[in-house]
Design brief:
Layout lengths: L9 H21 L11 H22 L3 E9 H7 L13 H19 L4 E2 L2 E2 L5 E11 L5 E4 L1 H4 L4 E5 L5 E10 L4 E6 L23 E6 L7 E12 L12 E4 L11 E3 L5 E8 L7 E5 H14 L5 E2 L2 E5 L4 H6 L7 E6 L15 E5 L2 E2 L3 H9 L7 E7 L2 E7 L2 E2 L28
Antiparallel strand pairs: 1-4, 1-6, 2-3, 4-5, 5-8, 6-7, 7-8, 9-10, 9-12, 10-11, 11-14, 12-13, 13-14, 15-22, 16-17, 17-18, 18-19, 18-20, 20-21
Length: 433
């Protein structure tokens, strides 16, 4: 029997509860002049709270069957490397006291695993080539067995197994991935269509700051944990000191912990609006999810072709409004993206684009920030003409560029497609066990 763990720390729970009560109180206060809407007694407020409580329960019941637990095995040598603290970049984000707790935990786990090799006839038995030592989450995309998760969950895996809410376990292969976006698709092997329930997808572009956000996954091996909070912000990009990830994040204060990676962030309708991917420390109320629209843009190409071909212009860019000096002297345009540098051996290097040009649109769609430009270019056709609207010395120009393909570093992973080679470090903060 599958157990449901509804885990919330006391402080966030109290905060969220008070927020809801205050919201309900304000709601009735605002409607105070409307006697037909004014509550007759405190029981009306309780009824509103019960309706909201029911909504959360319905979301958990609706979404949980679409969430999976992903377990990955790594070669023994790589497993030891993964347990080396220098390969755990999220530790740098923790307060000193919390960091030391994790150091102690990892060291104890490493020692315990080293002592688990039994002896037979006075000699140690052969150490297995790999072990299941990583865990994350994912969401079912289709009855054909495709599952969306984070790239860092399956990176370097020699074997992958997936457990459904029903308890059934299936082997899985990597269909494809985009390491720059931390998005991957895995494919279940021999999973009957009848038992798979695809998740309902929402529209991350329509997400509003302040709306409810609910995370479901397997944090700290507590499978099918449900936590809730709000959408704290949208459009977060450089969220760590170590990495400049190539997409906008949805920021949420719903508890996201190690093991939640790859699981869904859903709205109050039970629609996936994000893929939980990283945290800023523990118990800080600062978590990040990849917008579902962007994740599906990558996933759909991966499912169709087995890979994601990322378009690249070969330019250094900066948001105009972030460059206060230039922004004050440029009068022809108020928003856009400055071309700060151009790689000579690139698509842009072969075009008429010049340093100091201000790009205001890509393929006819306006861009107001460097991240918006990256989002527009990312999935454009390789080698196909792309028109950039540019301002140069107050003159508006249209410049044609033919994007090249970004060459990703190879990675070792069990895959249904071409085998990869050299393992690489994960992108972003690892939320793996």
């Amino acid at each position: 029997m599958v157990m449901y763990w509804f885990t919330m720390s006391r402080k966030p729970l109290l905060t969220h509860t008070l927020t809801i009560i205050c919201t309900l109180a304000v709601h009735f206060h605002v409607l105070g002049d409307n006697h037909s809407s004014q509550p007759e007694d405190a029981s009306d407020i309780l009824n509103w709270a019960q309706r909201l409580n029911t909504a959360f329960i319905q979301v958990a019941d609706k979404v949980s069957p679409s969430v999976v637990v992903i377990e990955v095995a790594h070669p023994v040598d790589e497993r030891n490397a993964l347990m080396d603290l220098q390969h755990e970049p999220f530790l740098d984000q923790l307060p000193e006291e919390e960091r030391r707790k994790f150091e102690k935990y990892f060291n104890e786990q490493k020692k315990q695993k080293e002592e688990q090799v039994p002896e037979k006839n006075g000699q140690s038995e052969q150490v297995p080539k790999d072990r299941y030592d990583g865990k994350g989450s994912g969401m079912i995309l289709s009855k054909k067995g495709f599952v969306l998760t984070n790239y860092h969950v399956i990176e370097g895996a020699s074997r992958i197994r997936v457990r459904l809410q029903s308890g059934r376990v299936f082997r899985a292969l990597v269909k494809g991935y985009d390491s720059q976006s931390d998005v991957a698709v895995i494919e279940l092997v021999d999973a009957p269509e009848a038992i798979l329930r695809p998740i309902e997808l929402g529209d991350s572009d329509s997400v509003k700051v302040g709306e409810f956000a609910i995370a479901i996954g397997a944090p700290f091996e507590l499978e099918y944990s449900v936590t809730y909070g709000h959408v704290s912000a949208k459009g977060r990009s450089s969220v760590t000191r170590q990495y400049n990830l190539d997409h906008d994040f949805i920021q949420t204060d719903a508890d996201i912990n190690p093991g939640n990676s790859g699981g869904p962030l859903v709205n109050i309708q039970g629609e996936a609006v994000g893929v939980n991917t990283m945290i800023r420390g523990l118990n800080t109320g600062i978590g990040f999810a990849i917008p579902i629209n962007m994740a599906m843009e990558i996933a759909e190409q991966v499912i169709e072709t087995g890979t994601f071909r990322r378009a690249l212009l070969g330019i250094g860019i900066e948001t105009l409004t972030d460059n206060y000096e230039l922004n004050n002297i440029v009068s022809a345009v108020s928003k856009g993206v400055i071309v700060s540098s151009i790689n000579a051996d690139s698509a842009a290097g072969e075009s008429n684009l010049k340093p100091a040009d201000i790009i205001i649109a890509v393929g006819g769609k306006p861009v107001a920030s460097a991240q918006q430009l990256k989002n527009q270019v990312r999935s454009k056709s390789i080698g196909k003409a792309l028109i950039l609207d540019v301002v140069r010395n107050k003159e508006r120009l249209q410049i044609e560029v033919k994007p090249r393909e970004w060459k990703r570093p190879p990675v070792t992973a069990i895959t249904a497609n071409e085998p990869r080679e050299t393992p690489t470090r994960p992108v972003g903060l690892k939320l793996r066990k």
